[in-house]
Amino acid sequence: MPPGTTTAFAPAKVNLALHVTGQRADGYHLLDSLVMFADVGDTITLRDAPEMSLTVTGPRATGVPTDARNLCWKAAERFGAAVAITLDKHLPAAAGIGGGSSDAAATLRAMADLYNRSFPTENLATLGADVPVCTVAHAARMSGIGDHVLPLTMAPLHAVLVNPGVDVPTPQVFKTLTTKANPPMTDWPDHGGAPAAIDWLQTQRNDLQAPAIALQPVIADTLAALAATTGNRLTRMSGSGATCFALYDDRTTAEAAATQLQSLHPDWWTTACTLR
Ligand code: C5P
Hints:
Number of helices: 8
CATH topology of the largest domain: Ribosomal Protein S5, domain 2
Oligomer: single chain
Radius of gyration: 18 Å
Structural class: alpha+beta
Bound molecules: cytidine-5'-monophosphate
Low-confidence stretches: none
CATH architecture of the largest domain: 2-Layer Sandwich
Order of helices and strands: EEEHEHHEEEHHHHEEHE
Number of domains: 2
């Protein structure tokens, strides 16, 4: 890599459970969420440059802003230095898997690497509610409005992610949720590995799933298609949707399920992955 250039991986974020526990006076919702990160994602490349620029490449580049509206750009500005950013986009945007927030967090990590100094950690949630957890980029419990992050040790989980290609605006999903004060997550088993984690996850929820389905019924079809795959242990929506996931006991079973779904629904974005 040329001097003055660095890259960072921006993994997909998956909310394995997402409980909405209240609402603040300013309208933001209080969350309690178990988050893990996939081995699929976007890649950010930064190059030292006299002025800011952003180029978006890759299979999901269409429609991604290439100016100061992009969270990568906003994240780089927080660092106070100009860079030429290339964002290689593989994750669907506005899909409940933290694409923009993970890109912003990867930009902060890459900026820190490029300039050999730590990135500013204040008010990261104002960039996007998922940015703080995305700077951790491995298993964590997220609470507050997304600004409290507690890293966790979790066994890797094997998953399939599916996005049916519909937009579900996050503010609208929160608005459609009628009961704001729901119980938080129960304590998870810190031993027993992946099987115990999956058993525990079955007793948790995503409170945004029902309101997202009310807005985009195809999410229910996506969950049903995942639930029908061989070896599926748990099926749920991530974030405010529309991406849904299913968990499997091993990677081979997850990959077979992804292949099965790709042939049934070639127009859906489908990938097998490992969550950490
Ligand atoms: O921060 P982010 O862009 O992900 O949030 C999108 C929208 O989702 C916010 O403008 C807000 O309407 C809603 N939101 C919320 N409570 C949170 C996070 C997001 O109400 N904790």
